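Lab notebook, bench 4. The sequencing result for the construct came back, and we need a structural model before the next group meeting so we can plan mutations. Quick request posted to the team channel:

Model the 3D structure of this chain.
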Amino acid sequence: EFEAKRAEYEAKAQAIHAEADARKAKLEGASVTIAANASTEGKLYGSVGPRDIAEAFTAAGLPLEKSEVILGEGAFRNIGEYDVLIHLHADVETTVKVVVVAEA
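Done. Here's the predicted structure in token form:
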């Protein structure tokens, strides 16, 4: 019985890992542009955080959870291009590009 359970858990773990790998392949080299309210100097009135990034990727057809977006230095407070780490699984990570622009 133990061996049967173990095989079941291992199969489930491999399926989850395979799904994370498939998502990584889709996200590889992906980028998204987020328009935010900003001053003329390029400072944002507010910030762009994990939720905004996850929503932008989901809207672009690449579903992403807020908890998968890793911002090492906190939310973005200036316009510019940023590399963002996406943590899909314990051993599956990828980097995507997020471009923050001023709203017209």
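Residues 89 and 95 are 13 Å apart (CA to CA).
Will bring this to the meeting.
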